[in-house]
Amino acid sequence: MRLLTHNMLSSNIKGVTNGFPLRIEAVKVEEKTVEMNTDFLKNMFVKIDWKVLVEASRTLGYAELPEEGDSSFLESDEFLSRFHHALLELHLEEGALICPETGRRFPVTKGIPNMLLHEDEV
Amino acid sequence: MASRPESIAPPEIFYDDVEARKYTSSSRIVQIQAELSERALELLALPEDGVPKLLLDIGCGSGLSGETLSEDGHHWIGLDISPSMLNIAVEREVEGDLLLADMGQGLGIRPGVIDGAISISAVQWLCNADKSSHNPRLRLKAFFTSLYKCLSNGARAVFQVYPENIDQRELILNAAMRAGFAGGIVVDFPHSSKKRKEFLVLTCGQRSMNASVPNGKDEDGESCSDDDMEEDENQTVCISDRHRPRKRPKTNKSGKGREWIMRKKDQMKRRGNVVPPNTKYTGRKRKDRF
Ligand SMILES: C[S@@+](CC[C@H](N)C(=O)[O-])C[C@H]1O[C@@H](n2cnc3c(N)ncnc32)[C@H](O)[C@@H]1O
């Protein structure tokens, strides 16, 4: 799972009012190089929760994102390549996602978060 | 006729390791799913600005449908309830991110962030009650309302579905409309029992006010509109758009009567439209003050 997806996911447990962001427990992280598309990054920038991306990328061992995100940064190639790397090249392979409200663990195996709810959570 | 997978076992049981591999190594299935996905992507009508989008593939399975999205340069998040199908997707190194999830439990995705969604040959599974705790109506509701929320304004969702019968089609369409979607059903190759394919084309939000449902395809690849077969049972396009202003009925002192209404409703139903059930109130004369 890439941080792009992590930034969109929230806990769906019944009764949880703010299931975002899911806390990351990283056991194994992989990097895969993909081609950069500036237009995609610019479009995504407005949808991304920047603080959450900064925090998540740190958890995966990448600490090169500026603390604050500002759309004026999108003019900088250096910024774009860091943003690209954090968003699309880091993969959480093994670990877990934790619901911020209930502490429920959603295990991640082979890069796939298991988001299935138990019957009493629906 | 072979029986439907949906009536054999729940999806996560039916699509076990053996079935998942068989499914994905059949060149016939690979080709059909690719064609369906391409058509779904076409019906999504994404802006042609060359900018990759963030899409959902619901019931993504082993990634056959998602691959079409990748080929078009888009990023996607796929979810499926079958671990075996997802394992094959990992094996095939699909480019989308995968989630093990049950769409009937609703999607846990932030509001307004997704540019479009496709689902190929999957949503009809929701019409089954595989566990005693399953209520198809509630599961469809959870699915469509959560999907509606996570789509950005004006985004579309296109589902290729195999409803078992008219009731299932209606159940699905009804749930989608109740969640706020506008849209309807597009039927490709309506006259061929083999090639006939149904797509639910839904639009979300403001721009859906003037959403129109595109035409289906005919044998020769031409698109065919519905006006050349007004009274045909195999309607190509059914539009059920609750945002569409109702046609004002011609005022007629005596009214049309219950019989006429029932006949009309049957006709609409056969075309796959959403029709309210008949009750003792159907066609009853209103009080004067109305
Ligand atoms: C016929 S396969 C299609 C897979 C893929 N879309 C393709 O085109 O090859 C249907 C898929 O829907 C999935 N499915 C069925 N019910 C589901 C549910 N409630 N939530 C998520 N996926 C489901 C099944 O596990 C299966 O992988």
UniProtKB/TrEMBL annotation, chain A:
Pfam families: Trm112p
Record-level GO BP terms: rRNA (guanine-N7)-methylation; tRNA methylation
Matches recorded under Gene3D superfamilies: 2.20.25.10
GO terms, molecular function: protein heterodimerization activity
Family: Belongs to the TRM112 family.
PANTHER family per the UniProt record, alphabetical: MULTIFUNCTIONAL METHYLTRANSFERASE SUBUNIT TRM112-LIKE PROTEIN, UPF0315 PROTEIN-RELATED
Self-association and partners: Interacts with TRM9.
Listed name of the protein: Uncharacterized protein
Native species: Lupinus luteus (European yellow lupine)
Lineage, opening ranks: Eukaryota, Viridiplantae, Streptophyta, Embryophyta, Tracheophyta
Automatic annotation (TrEMBL), chain B:
Gene Ontology MF terms in the entry: rRNA (guanine) methyltransferase activity
Record's compositionally biased regions (Basic residues): 243-255
UniProt keyword list: Cytoplasm, Methyltransferase, Nucleus, S-adenosyl-L-methionine, Transferase
Domain 18S rRNA (guanine(1575)-N(7))-methyltransferase Bud23 C-terminal positions: 202-287
Gene Ontology biological process terms, A to Z: rRNA (guanine-N7)-methylation
Superkingdom, taxonomy of origin: Eukaryota
Main location (coarse class): cytoplasm
Protein location: Cytoplasm; Nucleus
InterPro entries associated with the record: Bud23-like, Bud23_C, Methyltransf_25, SAM-dependent_MTases_sf
Ranges for domain Methyltransferase: 56-130
Presence of keyword S-adenosyl-L-methionine: yes
Region Disordered, annotated ranges: 210-290
Composition bias, Basic and acidic residues: 256-265
Keyword Disulfide bond appears in the UniProt entry: no
Pfam (any one): Methyltransf_25
Cellular component terms per the entry's GO annotation: cytoplasm; nucleolus
Compositionally biased region (Acidic residues): 219-234
Record-stated family: Belongs to the class I-like SAM-binding methyltransferase superfamily. BUD23/WBSCR22 family.
PANTHER family: 18S RRNA (GUANINE-N(7))-METHYLTRANSFERASE-RELATED, METHYLTRANSFERASE-RELATED
UniProt-recorded name of the protein: 18S rRNA (Guanine-N(7))-methyltransferase
Source organism of this protein record: Lupinus luteus
Lineage, uppermost ranks: Eukaryota, Viridiplantae, Streptophyta, Embryophyta, Tracheophyta
